[in-house]
Amino acid sequence: MADDFELDTDDLTRRMDGAIANLRTELASLRTGRASASMLEPIQVEAYGSMTPINQVGTVNVPEPRMVTINVWDKGLVGKVEKAIRESGLGINPQLNGTIIMLPIPELNEERRRDLTKVAGDYAERARVAIRNLRRDGMDQIKKAKSDGSVSEDDQKFWESEVQELTDSYIKKVDAQLETKQAEIMQV
């Protein structure tokens, strides 16, 4: 009767990996005073009737440490791309040169650095919440199996500790990513 329950830890692991990947993407979009093409990833442009990522309307390059350039393929979209960058909240003032948009990356001041570390902290907290929600899903599956009689009490404790260990390891990964990003932001 009991012991025919097997928690899909691979599924939980895959979903927690998704939360970590999402955190990496969000942290990469924070500018740290150095130019990076990934800082433009979250910006969408109204192009051809739909919202489109900037890297799908032009070529994004980083020719020097404090400059990002976007070579927009369609002249009609240059203004829209420039407007999307201005309204993105990155704090960058685009400069036009024909179909090329240049984004000089200004030096970050101390206050802006502290603000960015808080934003990074918010991103990390969202990732932690997502991981905890996945833990809750796993625990709910175990409790349901216990109430169905398909898992013994000893097995229930075993699976709950497995889910908790998995959760703890992913929370540590989030904390490590946050610590690295905050150090990168505060580096002058």
TrEMBL record:
Keywords: Cytoplasm, Protein biosynthesis
HAMAP family: RRF (MF_00040)
Organism domain of life: Bacteria
Function text: Responsible for the release of ribosomes from messenger RNA at the termination of protein biosynthesis. May increase the efficiency of translation by recycling ribosomes from one round of translation to another.
GO biological process: cytoplasmic translational termination
Residue ranges annotated for the Ribosome recycling factor domain, each copy included: 23-186
NCBIfam families linked to this entry: frr
One cellular component term from this protein's GO annotations in UniProt: cytosol
Gene3D superfamilies according to UniProt: 3.30.1360.40, Ribosome-recycling factor
Family of this protein: Belongs to the RRF family.
Gene Ontology MF, one: ribosomal large subunit binding
PANTHER family from the UniProt entry: MITOCHONDRIAL RIBOSOME RECYCLING FACTOR PSEUDO 1, RIBOSOME RECYCLING FACTOR
Compartment annotation: Cytoplasm
The protein, known as: Ribosome-recycling factor
Species of provenance: Wenxinia marina DSM 24838
